[in-house]
Amino acid sequence: MKEVDDFQKDVVDSDKPVVVDFWAPWCGPCKMLAPTLTEVSKSIKSAKFVKVNVDDHQNIASQYGVRGIPAIMVFSKGQPVQGLIVGVKPKDELEAEIKKLLEKA
User: Fold this and answer.
1) Which DSSP symbol is given to 18?
2) Residue 75 is part of a domain; what is its CATH number?
3) In this model, does residue 1 exceed pLDDT 90?
4) Residue 85 burial by CB count (10 A; 0-12/13-18/19+): exposed, middle or buried?
5) pLDDT of 57-88, one tens digit each?
6) What range does the domain containing 26 cover?
7) What angle do CA 80, 57, 103 make, to 5 degrees?
8) DSSP summary character for residue 11
């Protein structure tokens, strides 16, 4: 999964839904979630998956109300889809929750 360089270009202006993983390098649960999310990203081809380091992009995390990490948010047509996935989840549960958010996209 690619780290966001330009949130506007990579997420807001994307022509397909984007699954955004808000994380930080010091966050243990974020490190636990990363391989699971990578696996899920391989099975869901309808969306782009990116990571946002909240230490490097505090303004973005705050703008979208991210208060705890790991947090996963889905964006469609530049707007966040209602619903936020917080914490570490088993692969099947995580995949189901992401697909549910993508259905709203």
Assistant:
1) E
2) 3.40.30.10
3) no
4) buried
5) 999 999 999 999 999 999 999 999 999 999 99
6) 2-104
7) 20
8) I
Rounded-to-integer distance, Cα 81 and Cα 73, Å: 7
Domain count of the fold of the chain:
1
Instruction: Count Cα atoms within 13 angstroms, Cβ side, for 101.
Output: 23
What is the distance between the alpha carbons of residues 25 and 15, in angstroms, rounded to a whole number?
29
Distance between CA atoms of residues 54 and 69, nearest Å: 9
- Sorted by sequence, the CB contacts under 8 Å of residue 93 that are 6+ apart come out as none
Please write the tens of the pLDDT for every residue from 5-61: 899 999 999 999 999 999 999 999 999 999 999 999 999 999 999 999 999 999 999
Q: Give catalytic residue positions.
A: 27, 30
